[in-house]
Amino acid sequence: MTPRLSAQIASFRYPDGTAALNDIRLEVMPGEFCGILGSNGSGKTTLLKILDGIVKEFTGQVLLDGDEIRRLSPREIYGKMGLVFQNPDDQLFAHSVYEDVAFGPRNMGCGETEVGRRVSEALEAVEMAGLARKDIQNLSYGQKKRVCIAGLLAMGHEILLLDEPTAGLDPMGEHRMMELLTRLNRESGVTIVMATHSVDLVPVFLSRLHVLSRGGLVRSGTPEEVFHSPEELANVKLRLPYIAELIHRLRIDDHLPFKRLPLTIGAARREILETMGGQGPA
Ligand SMILES: Nc1ncnc2c1ncn2[C@@H]1O[C@H](COP(=O)(O)OP(=O)(O)OP(=O)(O)O)[C@@H](O)[C@H]1O
Predict the structure, then answer these.
(1) If DSSP codes are grouped into helix, strand and coil, which group holds residue 230?
(2) ABC transporter domain spans which residues (predicted)?
(3) Torsion over CA of 33, 159, 3 and 72, rounded to 10 degrees?
């Protein structure tokens, strides 16, 4: 199967000389929902901009469906892939929700009936169906983030690159955003790559993680593989998810014989029951 995205980035420097990325190799398969995990300044946004074809001055290659991205036209790239910025105010520009989401399809040459259909479907998908006429300025931060995603869905994007989609949201909003993305991935088959430093959320929702530190890729794997070693995470300025941290402390401080570091509440429950020899509460 051809990866939707395949990146081999030997190095990238910003014009002021900052060495932002080096020796990155990663692939994103069709239908995948994967994360780029890293602390502040590790290079997540830069990597997303390169994957999206915005930043071109790197050494190496990025293939989109097998084609070198720098040889594709903007229409070829942005017909199938789009980037949602961390701050929705950097992305939204129209007065109303409808006008903002309609901009992409209109730009693609769709007639007004088709534009209307696409806007309705996209707003439905992000649970904003009743808010089409609302002034963008009067939306909450989380609603603005949803409108940004709707704008890309209305253009028929099959690949979404999302920069910190849960940043700035309250705990409930974070969960709703992750559920929305999971639904888009599972039900609509959208391939999603999201940059994040939120270690508590990612193991619950994502199937594969790429860990960045100081511009380099230090580990790729399932959440279980990535969160295997607390020491390794501390080296890249990340920590264990709270659930795993709790079991880790009980194991070290109280010598309790937990075998694995669980990443979800369900896994923690299983681990505790196994440690109790299956003698847990009925
Ligand atoms: N336009 C720019 N010019 C020069 N250096 C930049 C520019 N943008 C980012 N950098 C630098 O590149 C490095 C990686 O930055 P980047 O924004 O990609 O990190 P990040 O992981 O997304 O961080 P955060 O989690 O804080 O958003 C940092 O050292 C940053 O200072």
Answers:
(1) helix
(2) 5-239
(3) -160
C-alpha dist (Å) from residue 25 to 71, 108, 172, 224, 250: 20, 33, 34, 20, 37
Q: How far is the CA of 276 from the centre of ligand 1 (A)?
A: 47
Placement of tokens 């900052």 in the chain = 18
Residues with CB under 6 A from ligand 1: 14, 16, 18, 20, 38, 40-46, 197
Whether the complex's predicted ipTM is more than 0.95 is answered with yes
CA 54 vs CA 67, 196, 231: distances in Å: 16, 20, 35
For 137-147, give one letter per residue: b (16+ CB within 10 A) or e. eebeebbbbbb
Given a contact cutoff of 8 angstroms between Cβ atoms, the answer to whether 58 and 50 are in contact is yes
The pTM for the full model equals 0.89
Smallest CA separation from ligand 1 atom 9, residue = 46
**Residue ID of nearest Cα to ligand 1 atom 30:** 41
Ligand 1 center to residue 60 CA distance, Å?
A: 19
pLDDT score of 174 more than 90: no
